[in-house]
UniProtKB/TrEMBL annotation:
Function: The coatomer is a cytosolic protein complex that binds to dilysine motifs and reversibly associates with Golgi non-clathrin-coated vesicles, which further mediate biosynthetic protein transport from the ER, via the Golgi up to the trans Golgi network. Coatomer complex is required for budding from Golgi membranes, and is essential for the retrograde Golgi-to-ER transport of dilysine-tagged proteins. The zeta subunit may be involved in regulating the coat assembly and, hence, the rate of biosynthetic protein transport due to its association-dissociation properties with the coatomer complex.
Similarity comment: Belongs to the adaptor complexes small subunit family.
Domain AP complex mu/sigma subunit stretches: 6-138
InterPro entries with a match to the protein in the record: AP_mu_sigma_su, Coatomer_zeta, Longin-like_dom_sf
Name of protein: Coatomer subunit zeta
SUPFAM superfamilies cross-referenced by the UniProt entry: SNARE-like (SSF64356)
């Protein structure tokens, strides 16, 4: 198990054509990340053919651990090294599915993914960035994605006096308590 748990996130249509793909160049990356686009597309086509009509969620394919889910007319895949924890990768896929579903207002299909491509790409980047799993909490990640800019919390100005440090400590204590309450809900 490593910090760099994901080698690729792929969203393919039912014909195996690329809708969104992100290959990560990490210390544990396979040759896929640096291979030409034609080889990546060939990998995607073979993967789609292998999973077409199969309702399994986890498989070993071409030296990779692959977890996938079908959402309407698209398939979402996460490709990881063989030695990675499949439960962790599957939970990441479930989180990604839920975040995409929320970002698209529960209307997940190829046309909506293409229409709201920016939201889907942001959802993928909010869950996995550069091969590192950032979040497995779909509710928190969805909330962050749907929060408007004016709702963002602002940091108070920093005052380096004794009262300033107490204020910073109180602010941090409040944020920590809020995060703990959110995790318990």
């Amino acid at each position: 198990m490593s910090l760099y748990a994901v080698q690729a996130v792929l969203i393919l249509d039912s014909a195996g054509e690329r809708v969104l793909s992100k290959y990560y160049q990490t210390p544990r990356a396979s040759a896929l990340a640096t291979s030409p686009v034609a080889e990546q597309r060939s990998f995607e086509q073979k993967l789609a053919a292998k999973t077409k009509g199969v309702n399994d969620d986890v498989l070993i394919f071409d030296g990779h651990l692959v977890v996938y889910k079908q959402l309407a007319d698209i398939l979402v895949y996460i490709v990881a090294p063989l030695d990675e924890n499949e439960v962790l990768i599957f939970q990441t896929l479930t989180t990604l599915r839920d975040v995409i579903d929320n970002a698209l207002n529960h209307r997940v299909d190829k046309s909506n993914v293409l229409d709201r491509y920016d939201c889907v790409a942001l959802a993928v980047d909010s869950v996995v960035d550069n091969g590192i799993i950032l979040s497995n909490d779909s509710a928190l990640t969805s909330e962050r994605l749907t929060r408007s800019a004016d709702e963002e919390l602002t940091m108070p100005t920093v005052d380096f006096s004794e009262t300033g440090f107490k204020s910073m400590f109180d602010f941090a204590k409040g944020r920590l308590a809020q995060a703990v309450r959110h995790q318990l809900v």
